[in-house]
Design brief:
Blueprint lengths: L7 E4 L6 H7 L4 H7 L5 E7 L2 E7 L5 E7 L3 E5 L5 E5 L1 E3 L2 E5 L3 E8 L2 E8 L13
Antiparallel strand pairs: 1-2, 2-3, 3-4, 5-6, 7-8, 8-9, 9-10
């Protein structure tokens, strides 16, 4: 994986399971409509382990996440929610856990391929039993 492997400007081509995914992560319906088949342009600037990842949405809205591989960073979801995450590099893929989903990105055949999958969490509440 080269020093600048991710650097580039990538235009949205297609998605799969968009509606199902955004419903599962709780994206508000106005954001769901905005994102459906919209031609997002993703611009990535990579300098070693430092990244600036910007998504340009139709209508002029942008979301930018700046992070360093292996260090905690302030991030923002596509729905505008702020959170902290440590982005990792695993086998040439950028890997990050967002609040409701797991995200990977890789360069394949000159294309940026991003996969988001929902994370299911199980909460177990325990109570101390007095004997």
């Amino acid at each position: 994986q080269g020093n600048m492997a991710f650097t580039g400007k990538y235009e949205f081509e297609s998605d799969e399971n968009y509606d199902d995914f955004v419903k599962k992560i709780g994206l508000p319906s106005d954001k769901v409509e905005l994102g459906r088949n919209c031609k997002i342009v993703t611009e990535v600037v990579q300098n070693g382990n430092d990244f600036t990842w910007t998504q340009h949405f139709p209508g002029g809205r942008t979301t930018t996440n700046t992070f360093t591989i292996g260090k905690e960073a302030d991030m923002e979801t596509m729905g505008g929610k702020k959170f902290k995450a440590t982005v990792k590099m695993e086998g040439g893929k950028i890997v990050a856990d967002f609040p409701n989903y797991h995200h990977t990105a890789e360069i394949s055949g000159g294309n940026l391929v991003e996969v988001s999958s929902q994370i299911s969490r199980l909460f177990i509440k325990t109570t101390t039993k007095n004997n």
